[in-house]
Amino acid sequence: MIAVLGLVLGIVIGVLTRPVVPTGLEVYLPIAVVAALDAVFGGLRARLDGKFDDKVFVVSFLSNVVVAALIVFLGDQLGVGAQLSVGVVVVFGIRIFSNVTAIRRHVFRA
Amino acid sequence: MTAMPAQSSRPPDATSRPDASMWLLNQVMDHSLDEGYEEAAARRAAAGGNPPRTLRDRVWLAVGLLLAAFVVTAGAAQARAGAPEVAREREELLERVRAGTEGADRLQAEVDGLRDAVAEGRRAALTEEGGERAELVGLLAGAIAVTGPGLELVVDDAEGAGTGSGAGPREGSGFSDTGRVRDRDLQRVVNGLWAAGAEAVAINDRRLTSLSAIRTAGDAVLVDNRPLVPPYTVQAIGDGEALREAFEAGPAGATLRDLRDHFGIRVTTGVRDELRLPAATGATTRYAVPVDPDAAPGDTGTRETDHDTEEDYTP
Fold it and tell me: Is B107's pLDDT higher than 90?
């Protein structure tokens, strides 16, 4: 119940406040979104696997976002930001895909 | 990882998998679930069964979901807000390009109009001031349009030239493919026409004067720094038939025949009863001034200009 409340609250805050992302951080937002989605799908899969742990979920979410942003930041400083962004998106994309596949197997038994 | 199965002659041992080169992808796909969950589950199992979820756990989850939802929503909002911005900037750029092009076109039209006016004025002044003699001078200088019988040559690139196919003996500096009419071909043709007694020559309606240059820039032939588009129509005013005979008997005629026979350059020659050649545009001199008949030849004026230039280059 509290979890659903948190989810709804997060969406509402996002919609209502229309957060103005600072110009310097704009490039990290898509990466953060992909990292967040990865954490969410990972958590969902763990839930269905019966291994879910709240703390692991939050920590993995935060570390995903921070590490992804750090990698891209480092890449920007080194002049390979675009390439590293692609790398991060590819890794998270594959993870999201296989997690969704596992979720699908759980839900549809197929 | 030290063994390289693809290169070793030994049979692959048990540790090397056929998809060893896909190690990274497999790693990512097999470990898509955070290891933390496994460890937490193992810890719980070691502690003996699932403990009931505390309020703290629920708050953790709520905070995590809140953050995730917030980030995703913010990303979506940002993307939505950014899309019209990008489109607007693009539109603005396009608008600026359009405005710039229009401005350039307007200026070009103005330049053309002024050039025509200048040419008109020069022609009027020549006829007014000097009468017969000035007209002759203007005619010879290409400053006024002329008409008369003459010879028309149409020189065109060989069939299929410009597609870049086929290298031949004519490759070299300038044009890379053969079968294209070059500046020096046109130079020979024009020289041949002058030699054959032409009194006025124009290429593609660009009148040649004593200051005209036929040259190449990139893949285009330029006359007076204006690019020409093939086919090149060379018109020469003179005694039509005699002009043609003299031209074809001369070296330029032989060159043209060679070009036609060996490189497929298309040439058509025709005697015309009446040709109209336009006046040359922008024929001005910046340095040459008429010599004062009273002054001695070799005036000091030239030396003064030399001196000026030298001073310009003194560091």
Answer: yes
Q: List, as ranges, residues 26-65 from A with C-beta within 8 Å of B.
A: 26, 29-30, 32-33, 36-37, 39-40, 42-43, 45-46, 49-62, 65
Element spanning B298, H or E: none
Query: Which sign does the torsion angle of CA B31, B34, B39, B44 carry?
Result: negative
Q: Which of A8, A12, A33 to mutate to test the interface with B (most CBs of B within 10 A)?
A: A33
Q: Report the C-alpha gap between B191 and B11 in whole angstroms.
A: 79
**Binding-face residues of A in 86-105 toward B, CB within 8 A:** 91, 94-95, 97-99, 102
**Which residues lie below 8 Å from residue B165, measured CB to CB, with a gap of 6+?**
B177
Q: What DSSP string runs through B32-100?
A: -S-HHHHHHHHHHHHHSSPPPPPHHHHHHHHHHHHHHHHHHHHHHHHHHHHHHHHHHHHHHHHHHHHHH
Instruction: Dump pLDDT digits (tens) for B195-211.
Output: 888 889 999 888 888 88
Distance from CA of A36 to the nearest CA of B (A): 5
Residue B272: phi and psi, rounded to 5, are -115, 145
Q: What local confidence, expressed as pLDDT, does residue B13 receive?
A: 54
- pTM (2 d.p.): 0.45
State the Cα angle at B15 between B9 and B18, rounded to 5°: 65
Q: Strand runs (DSSP E) across A1-105, as ranges?
A: none
Q: Inspect the interface and report whether the beta carbons of A10 and B73 lie closer than 8 Å.
A: yes
Domain locations in chain A as residue ranges: 23-108
**ipTM tops the 0.85 cut:** no
The CATH architecture that domain B147-277 belongs to is 2-Layer Sandwich (3.30)
Where does the pLDDT of residue B93 fall: very low under 50, low under 70, confident under 90, or very high at 90 and above?
very high
Q: Within 10 A of A91 (CB to CB), how many other CB atoms are there?
A: 20
Angle between helices B240-249 and B251-263 (to 10 degrees): 70
Choose the closest CB to A46 out of B33, B60, B74. Answer: B33
**Over the stretch B137-182, which tens digit does the pLDDT of each residue have?**
777 777 778 888 999 989 888 876 654 444 444 444 444 556 788 8
